[in-house]
Write a structure and sequence with these properties.
Largest sheet: none
Order of helices and strands: HHHH
Number of strands: 0
Helix content: over 70%
Oligomer: single chain
Strand content: under 5%
Low-confidence stretches: none
Mean pLDDT: 85
Length: 71
């Protein structure tokens, strides 16, 4: 279950520790690659870090994973 990692990543980002947040989200994605919300959260952190090209690619991957999913 990636939820504890996701929540810890959100907390880290809220406290300004964006690099730690990204590390936690990377772990969560590795554990649950089929969860689009994790890609979205990771993309937002990358955007805050100024990594816009990476953010775009991550968002695109999240959208691709949502295709065919019941939202």
């Amino acid at each position: 279950d990636p939820q504890p990692l996701q929540l810890a990543a959100i907390e880290a980002a809220e406290h300004g520790n964006l690099q730690r947040s990204l590390e936690l989200l990377d772990q969560a994605v590795a554990e649950s690659p089929a969860r689009p919300a994790l890609y979205n959260d990771r993309a937002q952190v990358k955007q805050l870090l100024g990594e816009l090209p990476g953010e775009f690619i991550l968002t695109l991957n999240a959208v691709r994973r949502c295709q065919g999913a019941h939202l």
